[in-house]
Amino acid sequence: MGNGAEFHFAGPVTVFQERRLPERATPAGYSALIEACGLAVPLPRTLSAIGERHRVLEEGGWRILTPRHAPHPTLEGHLTFALKYEGLDLAVLKRIFLTVGAVPIEALVRDTPTGTYARRLWFLYEWLIGQRLDLPDAQAGRYAPVVDPAQQWAVAGETSPRHRVKNNLPGTPDFCPLVFRTETLERFVVSNLSARAQEIVANVSRDLLARTATFLLLKDSKSSYAIEGERAPQDRIQRWGRAIGEAGQHELDLEELLRLQRIVIGDARFIKLGLRDEGRFIGEHERDMRMPLPDHISARPEDLPSLIDGMVSFDGGPARDLDPVIAATILAFGFVYIHPFVDGNGRIHRYLIHHVLAQREFNPPGVVFPVSAAILEQIDEYRRVLESYSTRLLPLIDWEPTEDFNVHVLNDTGDFYRFFDATPHAEFLYTCVRKTIEEDLPYETDFLRRYDQFRQQVTDFIDMPDRLINLLFRFLQQNEGQFSKRARDREFEALTNEETQRIERIYQDAFDGMRESAR
Question: How far apart are CA 436 and CA 195, in angstroms?
Answer without folding.
Answer: 14
